[in-house]
Amino acid sequence: MSAATKRIALGAVAVALVAGLAGCSAFGKSEEGAKEGAPGAKKEPVAAPEGAVRLIGDGSTAFTGAQPHQPVWHKMKPGQKPPQFVVFSWDGAGEDSQKLFSHFREVGRKYNAKMTYFLSGIYLLPEEKSKLYRPPQHAPGSSEIGFNDTEGIRATVRELRAAWQEGNEIGTHFNGHFCGKEAGVGNWSVEDWKSEVTQAKSFVKNWKTNSGLTGEEPLPFDYDKELVGARTPCLEGRENFVRAASQLGFRYDTSGINSQIWPEKEHGLWDLSLQLVPIPGRGFETLSMDYNFAVNQSGKMHGDPAKHQYWGNQMRDGLVQAFERSYHGNRAPLIIGNHFESWNGGTYMRAIEETIAKVCVQKDVHCVSFRQLADWLDAQDPAVVAKLRTLKVGQAPAGGWETFMAAQPAVASPAASAPAAKPAES
Length: 426
Known about the structure:
Helices cover 32% and strands 15% of the residues. By secondary structure, it is α/β, with parallel strands linked by helices. It has one domain (15-47, 58-406): Alpha-Beta Barrel (TIM Barrel). α4 packs across α7 and α9 (308-330) runs parallel beside α10.
């Protein structure tokens, strides 16, 4: 049994919010059809040019050309209804005996859903090399989620490689997953976060040397350029992380708590945080993540087996309700986070798969990665995004989208609107 298979979720933290709970846990690690883009956009799969492969460093990564299967976005036209975006994302993405990474890659291909996989860097670091990791404010080789073994690294790299080639995004969930008031990432400085990011990149860029798997194919991307966003462990330490990320050239963060409204930028990064969504039959909402549904339903990760199906259905129905109120309301992107875990009998994995099957096939819906969503937002006029932000949760424009999104008349300058000067009398 691999070290990855034996690892279990550790150190999860929950934060009271409204009447629900917010949190994130460590991941217990255990392989398309074309669809038109947003109105005015088109899909343009890009193959690597002949001879474009260029190994980087020890050959763990490589430049292979532009990423395939990426949408090309354009500005919305006046009067145009916004597309409905949905982002499915995975914390600590890795492949183990559960084979959930490879399974959800298959689900993504089936429903043309591009996703974001947040890799924990030490999933590419073997346990015997653990001292190479020097976590901020912790002893070298410390980790709340353990390390990997050779076969776990081989399997994870295989899935990362294929996921990127299929058009998905590889982000970061950092490394040691330290949570809590005493020793968690919430205590980290801006410089601590920079160190953690640098090390996460290093483990990706040197996995061949560190694991001895020198005969394996490289990851087909330059991680220094690929890495543009993250989710912090347990959603802690966001304030200093965002400051660090803005200095490192990141484009978005998804570590906070939002309502279902259109996003805005903070320190130059798009705030694409998790959102509060309904829990059917309950009088409060919770964060759009499997962990938070589990905590609210069973108080632990392995509750009463007789309730597993009900809990999974409740999560699925809550996410679908959240989708419907955006889809028929303000069209704000829906942000969903998950873990490759079999909590409560795997019921949340079923719930996510059924949600994907329900929402990603609907008209004007685009299941995209965070990077793709950031690309679309950056392609729009900032004034248009600001206007979309005036719509509340589930609020459709009273006069319809055509009127709400109509071009605004240009405001005349004071000089242009002033009466012409009267000729001087001779």
